[in-house]
Amino acid sequence: MPRKPAHEQFDTLKVIGDHAFELFGRYGYEGVSIGDIAKATRLSKGALYWHFKGKEELYLDCQRRLHALFNDYIFDPMRNEDDPVRAVLGLFTGLERLLQDPRVEKGVAGYWLIPSRPDTSALIEAQRKFETRSIEALRNALQRGMDAGMVDFAGDLEALARAVISLVEACVLPLRHRSPAEVRGELSVLARTLFRAYANTDEVVRLAEQF
Rounded to the nearest 10 degrees, what angle do helices 55-70 and 121-147 cross at? Predict the structure, then answer.
């Protein structure tokens, strides 16, 4: 079977990727089959296997898409922000912008529903690496805030970074059933609570209040 021209391959890949991303986000790895994706894309299973070796490879591709969205909206801007407090607030403001992206409007909780089996080890490892990098980005911003004397997390730094990322995930998981405005309200409370508890200056508290 001759290969399609490059532009047709790209179009087919985009159709597959877009539909698979949504299905995995709603139903998780086990809740979606190659047949489900073929039906949604109106392509044959053979067409899917032409581009992807199997469901695991397709899922990994979608997982990378999700991680790229989080990096583009949240973690890369955090890393590039010189002001440490604004960098931490960037976690919340970036997530707010992410929630307005149409690619996540139907929910992405499925990406946290990976069964622990030998055949899914690569998927779990990819998710763990992403979460580790996310925690590191927040921890570095929190540490910079302490170094500047703007906040004081004392011995809570590591645990706090992990806890905040977990709380952010908890806000995102039920997104399919709640509006971005509802999630934004929760994020605002988290941001204000964080800085009220650990701020060393009134200026830091005022910045948090603006969110």
Answer: 10
User: pLDDT of 165-178, one tens digit each?
Assistant: 888 888 777 766 66
Give the start-to-end residue ranges of the domains of the chain. 56-209
How many other C-beta atoms can be found within 10 angstroms of the C-beta atom of residue 80?
9
Q: Which amino acid is at 37?
A: I
Q: In this structure, are residues 165 and 138 in contact, taking their beta carbons and an 8 Å threshold? A: yes
Contact 30, 116 (CB under 8 A): no
Dist. CA 143–CA 139, nearest whole Å: 6
Q: For residue 4, what are its two tokens?
A: 């399609």
Per the prediction, the chain carries an average pLDDT of 86
Q: What fold does the segment set 56-209 form as a domain?
A: Tetracycline Repressor; domain 2 (1.10.357)
H-run or E-run covering 203: helix 202-209
CA 189 to chain CA mean position, Å: 20
Reduced to 3 states (helix: H, G, I; strand: E, B; else coil), residue 199 is strand
Distance CA 16, CA 47 (A): 10
CA distance linking residue 59 with residue 62, whole number of Å: 5
pTM: 0.85
Give residue for tokens 């990819």.
126
| DSSP state for residue 3 in the 8-state scheme | P
Give, in order, the Cα–Cα distances in Å from 171 to each of 9, 22, 29, 99, 108.
37, 18, 21, 11, 11
